[in-house]
Every structure is written in structure tokens, then in C-alpha cells.
Amino acid sequence: MAFDDTHMQEDAALLMAYARGDHTAARELASAHAPRLMALAWRMLNDQGEAEDVTQEALLRLWKIAPEWRNGEARISTWLYRVASNLCTDRLRKRRRVTPLEPEMDIADDKPGVVAGMIDVDRKYALTAALEALPENQRLAVVLRHLEELSNPEIAQIMDLSVKAVESLTARGKRGLKTRLSANAASLSYRDE
Amino acid sequence: MVTTSHNQPSSLSDDDLERDFAELRGDQPPVSDAFMARILDDAFTHIPAPAPIPATAPDMITRLRQLLAFGRWQSGMGLAASALAGIWIGYAAPVGLSTLITPTTPLEVENQSVDADPFDTFLLEG
Question: Is the ipTM of this complex over 0.85?
Fold first, then answer.
């Protein structure tokens, strides 16, 4: 769900009100943006605690910059996504330095794939694991495009890339996901529609 | 189509992947009340103070009231006495003061009692 111009103007008005000392504006901004940032960070980091840290830090930077915010230069949502994305990427790079890459997750052959609910859980788990195995930029592009449902131009602003570069990253990311998921397709019971 | 006739896995389709994305999209991590409270705590810690309302200079009556309210009644009485004295001097000129006042304006000159024209006096007296 992409933010449109109405949301952009509402956000700008709320941030101006916050900068004038309006506590209610802070509550509205937090309610509007915390869940989306949380979702992005959680999908990137796969850890509730780290996702909360990133979300809190991104919003803290917004509170601090509020008096200097210049309307019309950027959407607040885009700015927040960019801050959160950079924080996530930093944490992922630190993780790689500390722990080696995890081997590809193998779905156990003895999982009871005939139970629909458990199959769904397995497939979500498999997709999450496959996302985690992607390079950071590909993962971010795929998460923003296919899970956060942002447009390519907005993703380009968040990642500071051209739209073509975003399309390329997304395409490569999806190919990587399909390759990994296909290896376990039988146990995940992908069926003809 | 995922499996071939020999039951060999092949690449997932875009539709399969999109279906999985849709399932995962529905999984949203919760934003607990405690976490939201921490976010708002940051917000209220850094919230700018509202701009103060500019103060206007009090008029004389307000200043007099302030002096009296703060117990400086002597100052208030002195101020009031000075004001009254100024008004009295302006409206009721003391005796003898008029001798010090010489007409300077055309109106004052016109209203002044006019002495006989010296020339007329010369003509009358010869």
C-alpha cells in the first residue's frame, strides 16, 4: 500500500505541528509509521528485538530533525524507510562479519506435508529463509516491492538508485528465491492451480 | 507447474511465488503497547517547546495596580500624586504665572488687550 500525496501532506502537517510542541501530532505520526517500519525491519532482520531497535531509532531521528524539516523535499514515509533500510543493512553486515553465512535451510523430508496449515507454515518459513539468504540489496528490493508493495520509483528514492537498478535487483532477487524454493518444491507441495 | 512427468522438480512459477508473497504479507509483527510507549517517550523528550507569547508593555493603570499588588504602596501613591500634580499644573495655572507668559502665537496676540496705537495717541495729543 503506497502513500499518496494526501498522506504526504498530512504527514508534513503533523510534523510541523510536532515541531510546534503538539503532543497529539507525535502520537499520530508514531501510529501511522511505526507498524510499517516494524514490518520492514522484521522482514529484513527476522528478529523482533532488533526490528524494534531499528524502528525506534528511525523515529528518534525523525523527532530530532523535525524543527529543520523542509516541506516538499521528500515524503516523510520515504525518508523513514530509507533510514530504517540503512539501519537494517548495517546490522546485516555486522552479522555477516560476526557469523558466517548460514547454510541453505533444508526442509525435512519427514514433515507432514499433507496437512494444509502446516504446508502453509512450511512455505512461509521456506520463503523467509530464502529471503534471508539473498544479498542485502536484493532482499531489500524484494521486500519493499513484494511485501511492502511500494512502487519502483519510491523504492529507487529509498535505496538511492535508479528505477532500472531497482528493477534489476528485484528480478535477480526473485530468481534467487525461485531457485532456492524449487529445491524443496516437492516437500512444500507446490501444486498446479 | 512444478513437477515434470518424471517427478523432477523444476523452477517455481511467478504465480507460485506471488502466492507465497501474499501469504507472507499477512504476517505483520505486533507493535506492543510497551514498545509504542517507548517510541512516544522519545518523541516527548525531544518535542520542541511551544513559542512563547510576546509580552506587551503594561499601561500606566496596569503598572499602578502591579505596584499596589506587590505591596509597594508608597511608590504607587507617589506615582499617583505626581500624576495628579501634573494635571493640576496644566489646567489651573498658579497666580503670577501669567506674568511670565508672553503671547507668542497669533491667537494669543489677537486676544491680548491692545494698547492704543502710538500714532493715534500722537494724533489725539498732537
Answer: no
* More confident site: A159 or B2: A159
Taking only the tens place, the pLDDT of each residue in A93-115 is 988 777 655 544 444 444 444 45
CA-to-CA distance for A76 and A16, rounded, in angstroms? 12
What's the rounded Cα separation, in Å, for the pair A148 and A40? 7
Longest alpha-carbon distance in chain A:
61
Close Cβ partners of A73 (under 8 Å, ≥ 6 residues apart): none
**Model's pTM, two decimal places?**
0.67
Alpha-carbon span B19 to B15, nearest angstrom: 6
Contact state of B11 with A178 under an 8 Å Cβ cutoff:
yes
For the record, the C-alpha cell of A28 comes out as 499520530
Q: Which residues of A touch B44 (CB under 8 A)?
A: 23, 26
